[in-house]
Design brief:
This protein is mostly helical. The protein has helices spanning 22-40, 64-78, 84-89, 93-102, 108-113, 131-141, 163-193, and strands at 80-81, 104-105, 146-151, 157-162. Strand 3 (146-151) and strand 4 (157-162) form a beta hairpin. The longest helix has 31 residues, at 163-193.
Length: 201
Amino acid sequence: MLHRRHMKPAAKQDVAFAAPEPESRERELIAVLQDLVQELHPQRAKSMDVNESSRLERDLGGDSLARTELILRDERTFAVRLAGADASAAETVGDLLRALDQAHPARMAQAAEAPMAPLPLVPPAVEARTLIEVLEWHATAHPDRLHLAVLGDEVTPVETFTYRGLAEAAREEELLQTRKRTVSANSRSSSFDQPGWPRDS
């Protein structure tokens, strides 16, 4: 009889990154696709047969935005990072399965090891009545507070937005829209001043 001390310890397995069996991966991918097709084409979804040979655009009615959403859902479902070229070039469900086979595990472990420091709590802008007023209140109270970070992967920010930056961008956009409305109004006024155009009495 073998004693416990003579037994080799079982090899550790990273459960979070364990790749599913091919049949399981195909079933999960088809389930993701069926959910997306149901959202995109609720009237036709029941008559669409999603299988490995289904073409993402011609058979399932996907477009570039739907493909982007599908890639994001696949990455979340399978905890991988899909190569942009492989995912963009996929024409069928089978092509997408092969892209998943070549995908790298998402960097969830590193993200768990280096979490972002929590931001201090701030009181709500209770007197603000519009979203613009809320933004202006935050930009005045704590202009350099981080509001949004766009991540290139799970841990690497590629762009950040503070309340100051968002407020300045909102003001610039409002100024641009005001100028466009002014130019449009002047253009209509000039058209009515041309000979042959009836004017309101």
